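Human: My hope is that you can spare some time for a protein that puzzles me. I am handing you a single protein, as its sequence and its fold in token form. Could you go through the record with me and say what the backbone is doing? Take your time, and here it is.
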Amino acid sequence: MLTVKAFAKINLALDVLYKRPDGYHEVAMVMQAVSLADTIILTSHPGDIVLNVNIPGLPDDASNLAYRAAALIKEYAGIQQGVLITLDKRIPLAAGLAGGSADAAAVLKGLNNLWELNLSLDKLSKLAAKLGSDVPFCLYNGTMLATGRGELLSPLPPLPKCYVILAKPAVEVPTAWVYQEFKADRVQVRPDIAAMSKFLEQGSIDGVAGNLANVLESVTIPAHPEIAKIKESMLKYGAMAALMSGSGPTVFGLAGCQKQAEVIASQLKTEGIPEVFVAETVSKVE
């Protein structure tokens, strides 16, 4: 039996450059792992792949990325035995936090150890890219520049330790719909990836906070204006900066200390936001 953590991610910067011939969008993103995590327990058993989940309605079959990850590495390595996957879900669903991708990455890493396959992270990353654009990042965690469709990764200096408030309104946003609706001429602020990289090199949390940007806000916020209200509330309550993560609808805010983050989270809960969390940055490979 093996227990693996699956860490959520936020996007400190997200730019969509153009639509590629293969139908995907070329992106440039600065991605950051945070400590909000699902827990996955992997147990060998003589049958096939079995997935148990703790949330009613969450798929427990091949439509779940965790299941697909197990099937992929099992087939790749020619493994005959099965595995029981127990998924304790804490990352909100359809939230822009890569919860499903994190689960898939955790299963790949965990089964690599459980089955003693000794596959390198680079090899696991190639398998991960077959499952989804965010899955390779979730193998590494930390702070990374992601390009291509999100699967090409370059390490960045770690974001100085800070606290992250995560607030998800009571809506779910399909990532495919957001990218389908994206129009470059509607974007008002594009991220400066070079500036973000420079501030990370300098260890300047203020510089990072001042350069948060996500072009997908131009799609998701008009459809769900409550996202803009959460951003405004976070700033009002003292967050250094606030931004929608990924395709949304989750908003994250940065705070310098845990006490301030918890105060902000408490204030947001009084506004009736159903899911609010306080997390820390995860700045190393886990």
